[in-house]
User: Which sequence fits this backbone?
C-alpha cells in the first residue's frame, strides 16, 4: 500500500462505478477505472478523470491514475478491487480476473446481490486461479449516484452503514481492513449468506414491477414507484416474498432481517406493516417508477436475487411459491428463462453441500473446497 | 313451438332475469329460485320480468321463490344461471330436491362446472338419475336495467353444451334444444370447460394491474392489456391450449376467438386485436381486486385448467404463478377452495382416467 493508502481499481463505468471512482479519487486515493467497452470511458480517459457533482450542487474533479479496457494492466499492483457491475456480469469478471489476480488483493462486489461471492469464488476455482485473494460482497451499494454525462456523475448520498462479508468469513477482517480505508461505512456481516439473503431489492423491486406492470407501461412510469406503487394488496405480496426469503434464511441458520425491520432501521420508517412502513418512508417520496419494464429491477434482480433464493430454498426444502410466481411472470414479460439464466445452487458451487457443510464453507471452518460444481 | 316445458331458472342476476323472462315469452312454464330474497323481490312484486332489447315483452313467471322446494322438484329442466363459484353450494342446496329424469344445465359451467356439481351430488349420496350438463357460455349478453327489468343486448348464435358423462349428451340435448335451438353438441365437458377465455384474460390482467386497480385508477379494462401484459395473456393462453390439445379438445386461441366473437376486430397479434375491439371500449377496470375477475375466474377457471394440465404431465407455470399471486393478493387459498382434481371428483386420476370418466362415466 502506498503513502496515499490503497491503490483502488474500480471495475465498471456505469451509474455506480463512475461516481465511486470519482469519489475515491477526490478523497485522495490512487484510483484506476476499468470498463470492458472502451467507448464508454473514452471521454474519461481524455479528460483524465470524472467531474462529480454533490448533493449541495458543489462539483469537484476526481483525477484517475489509469482509465483502461486492459484488465491485466488495470489489476497490476492494485490493493483493492471494487467491482461495480450488474450481478449478471460477476461470473464473466471473475473468469477474466482469474489468471490476472495477485496475492493479497481484496475484491469487493458492490453489491453481490444473492450469491455474488459464492459465484465469484466458484468461477475463480474453475479457472484455476492460484492467487491468494480475498473475495467479499457488500449487502448494498454504498452510494446513491447517477451518471450524468460521459465523464460526469452525481452523488446523492452515501449510506450510513453497509454490511460486508468475505468468503470465507475468516477473511472478513482482512476485507474490512482495506475496504474501510475507502468507506468506513462498511461493517462486518456474519457471512456471505447473511449479505446475500438480506437483499431488500429482491423483496421490493421485482414484485413492484410485476404488480405495476400495466401502470408502468401505460404511464411510462409517471408515478412514485414505492409510495404509489405499494398499495395494500401489493404490499401483501411484498410481505409474502419477504416471508419466503426469511424462511430460506432460517433453513440456512441465517438470521435475516425482515423488510419491515430493515425499513425501520435504515430509513426510520414508521408503520406496523409493510404497507404503512413504505408509506412512512420519506426517502421513498418522489422516487419515480422505471419508465419501462425492460429494467434491471427485473433483468438483474430476478435472475441474480430471486432465482437463487427460490432455487436455494428448493435445494434445502423450503417452498417459495410467491417468489416463483414473480420469477415466472418476469420470464413471460421478458421472454427469457430466468430460471435457467439465474444463479442456482450449481452456479454458486454449493449443490452438493448439506446445510452444515454450506455453513462450514462460508464460515471458513471447512478447509476443503466444495466438490467442483458442474457448470451448465 | 312443440311442447311447453316446465323450467326452473336458478339465479337472480342479469342472466337469470333474461333467461326466465325469455323462456316465459317463448311459452314455457317458468319458475325461478334464488337463495337471495333481495334479488327476487322486485320480480315477485311484478309477477315476472320485463324484457327489452333483442326480445321484448313481459315474461310472466309461474312462481318466484327463495325456497328450492317450491321450484326444483316441480321442474323438468333446471337452468342454473349463477356465478360459477356458487355452483358447489347450490348443488348442495338442490341435492335433496332432485329426482329421476331431471336435467340440470349450468349456464355456463366455466371450467369444470358439471364435474364439480356431479362430485357434490355423489358426495351427498344423491341416487336420482339426473343428467348434469354445462354450456360453454351464457347464451345472452344482457344486463338488468331496473326493478324486474332486463335488457337483452344479444343472443349468441351457437352455444355448445355437453353432459357428464358424454354418453348422456343425447338426453341432455333432447331436453334443452327445445328451449334454445342455439344449443349445439360439444364432444364432452372438457370441450365446454377449456374454452374459458375469461380465465385467460381476466386474472392475469388484474394481477399485472393490481396496483392501479387498488389505487382506484379510472381506466378501461382493455387499456390495462398493455403490450407486455398481453404477452402474459398469450402465455396463459398457450398453457390452456396445450391442455386442450393434451385432452384432444378442439379449441382456438384467444386471439382467434376475438376475431370470431366480435365484429371489427383487426390485426395479427392478440394485442392489436384487443385494442381494436370496440366492444371493449367503456368497460371500466374494477376498483377493487375482490371481484369476479379473480374470485370466479381463478377458482373456477385457472385452478381447474392448471389441475387438468398437471394431470396430463404439463408444466403450467404461468397459470400457477397468476393463481399464487391472486391467493396472496386476496389472502385466500384458491388452490383449496377452487376446482382442484379433488373437488372435481377426479382425485388421483391421470389424463387417461379423466378422459374415461368424462366420456364414459365412473361406472366403466
Assistant:
Amino acid at each position: 500500500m502506498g503513502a496515499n493508502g490503497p491503490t483502488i481499481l474500480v471495475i465498471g463505468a456505469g451509474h455506480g462505478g463512475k461516481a465511486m471512482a470519482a469519489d475515491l479519487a477526490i478523497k485522495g486515493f490512487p484510483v484506476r477505472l476499468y470498463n470492458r467497452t472502451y467507448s464508454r470511458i473514452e471521454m474519461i480517459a481524455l479528460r483524465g478523470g470524472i467531474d462529480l457533482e454533490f448533493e449541495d450542487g458543489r462539483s469537484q474533479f476526481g483525477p484517475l491514475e489509469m482509465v483502461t479496457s486492459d484488465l491485466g494492466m488495470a489489476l497490476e499492483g492494485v490493493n483493492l478491487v471494487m467491482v461495480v457491475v450488474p450481478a449478471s456480469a460477476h461470473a464473466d469478471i471473475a473468469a477474466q480476473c482469474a489468471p490476472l489476480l495477485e496475492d493479497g488483493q481484496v475484491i469487493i462486489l458492490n453489491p453481490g446481490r444473492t450469491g455474488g461471492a459464492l459465484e465469484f469464488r466458484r468461477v475463480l476455482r474453475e479457472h484455476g486461479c492460484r492467487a491468494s485473494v480475498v473475495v467479499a460482497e457488500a449487502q448494498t451499494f454504498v452510494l446513491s449516484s447517477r451518471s450524468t454525462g460521459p465523464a460526469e456523475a452525481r452523488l446523492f448520498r452515501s449510506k450510513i452503514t453497509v454490511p460486508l462479508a468475505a468468503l470465507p468469513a475468516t477473511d472478513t477482517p482482512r476485507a474490512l481492513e482495506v475496504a474501510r480505508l475507502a468507506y468506513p461505512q462498511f461493517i462486518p456481516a456474519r457471512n456471505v449468506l447473511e449479505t446475500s439473503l438480506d437483499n431488500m431489492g429482491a423483496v421490493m423491486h421485482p414484485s413492484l414491477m410485476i404488480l405495476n406492470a400495466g401502470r408502468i407501461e401505460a404511464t411510462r412510469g409517471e408515478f412514485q414507484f414505492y409510495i404509489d406503487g405499494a398499495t395494500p394488496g401489493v404490499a401483501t405480496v411484498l410481505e409474502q416474498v419477504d416471508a419466503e426469503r426469511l424462511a430460506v434464511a432460517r433453513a440456512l441458520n441465517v438470521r435475516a432481517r425482515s423488510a419491515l425491520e430493515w425499513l425501520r432501521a435504515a430509513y426510520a420508517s414508521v408503520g406496523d406493516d409493510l404497507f404503512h412502513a413504505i408509506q412512512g418512508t420519506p426517502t421513498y417520496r418522489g422516487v419515480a417508477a422505471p419508465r419501462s419494464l425492460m429494467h434491471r429491477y427485473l433483468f438483474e434482480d430476478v435472475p441474480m436475487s430471486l432465482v437463487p433464493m427460490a432455487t436455494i430454498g428448493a435445494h434445502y426444502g423450503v417452498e417459495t411459491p410467491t417468489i416463483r410466481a414473480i420469477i415466472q411472470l418476469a420470464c413471460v414479460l421478458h421472454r427469457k428463462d430466468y430460471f435457467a439464466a439465474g444463479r442456482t445452487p450449481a452456479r454458486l458451487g454449493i449443490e452438493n453441500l448439506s446445510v452444515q457443510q454450506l455453513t462450514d464453507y462460508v464460515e471458513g471452518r471447512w478447509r476443503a473446497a466444495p466438490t467442483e460444481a458442474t457448470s451448465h | 313451438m312443440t311442447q311447453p316445458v316446465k323450467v326452473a331458472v336458478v339465479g337472480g342476476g342479469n342472466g337469470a332475469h333474461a333467461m326466465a323472462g325469455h323462456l316465459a315469452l317463448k311459452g314455457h312454464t317458468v319458475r325461478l329460485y334464488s337463495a337471495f330474497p333481495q334479488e327476487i323481490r322486485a320480480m315477485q312484486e311484478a309477477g315476472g320480468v320485463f324484457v327489452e332489447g333483442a326480445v321484448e315483452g313481459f315474461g310472466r313467471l309461474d312462481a318466484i321463490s327463495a325456497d328450492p322446494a317450491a321450484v326444483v322438484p316441480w321442474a323438468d329442466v333446471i337452468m342454473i344461471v349463477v356465478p360459477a363459484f356458487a355452483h358447489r353450494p347450490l348443488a348442495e342446496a338442490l341435492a335433496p330436491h332432485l329426482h329421476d329424469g331431471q336435467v340440470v344445465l349450468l349456464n355456463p359451467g366455466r371450467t369444470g362446472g358439471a364435474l364439480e356439481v356431479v362430485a357434490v351430488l355423489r358426495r351427498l349420496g344423491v341416487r336420482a338419475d339426473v343428467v348434469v350438463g354445462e354450456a360453454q357460455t351464457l347464451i345472452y349478453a344482457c344486463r338488468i336495467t331496473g326493478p324486474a327489468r332486463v335488457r337483452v343486448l344479444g343472443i349468441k348464435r351457437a352455444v355448445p353444451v355437453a353432459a357428464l358423462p358424454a354418453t348422456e349428451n343425447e338426453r341432455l340435448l333432447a331436453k334443452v334444444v327445445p328451449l334454445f335451438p342455439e344449443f349445439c353438441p360439444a364432444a364432452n365437458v372438457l370441450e365446454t370447460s377449456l374454452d374459458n377465455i375469461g380465465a385467460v384474460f381476466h386474472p392475469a390482467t388484474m394481477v399485472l394491474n393490481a396496483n392501479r386497480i387498488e389505487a382506484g385508477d379510472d381506466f378501461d379494462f382493455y387499456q390495462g392489456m398493455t403490450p407486455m401484459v398481453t404477452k402474459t395473456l398469450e402465455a396463459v393462453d398457450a398453457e390452456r391450449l396445450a391442455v386442450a390439445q393434451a385432452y384432444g379438445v378442439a379449441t382456438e386461441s384467444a386471439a382467434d376467438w376475438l376475431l370470431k366473437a366480435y365484429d371489427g376486430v383487426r390485426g395479427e397479434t392478440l394485442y392489436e386485436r384487443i385494442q381494436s375491439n370496440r366492444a371493449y371500449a367503456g368497460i371500466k377496470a374494477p376498483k377493487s381486486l375482490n371481484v369476479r375477475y379473480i374470485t370466479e375466474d381463478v377458482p373456477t377457471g385457472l385452478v381447474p385448467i392448471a389441475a387438468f394440465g398437471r394431470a396430463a404431465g404439463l408444466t403450467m407455470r404461468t397459470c400457477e404463478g397468476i393463481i399464487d399471486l391472486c391467493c396472496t393478493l386476496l389472502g385466500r387459498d384458491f388452490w383449496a377452495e377452487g376446482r382442484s382434481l379433488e373437488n372435481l371428483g377426479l382425485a388421483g386420476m391421470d389424463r387417461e382416467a379423466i378422459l374415461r370418466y368424462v366420456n364414459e362415466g365412473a361406472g366403466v
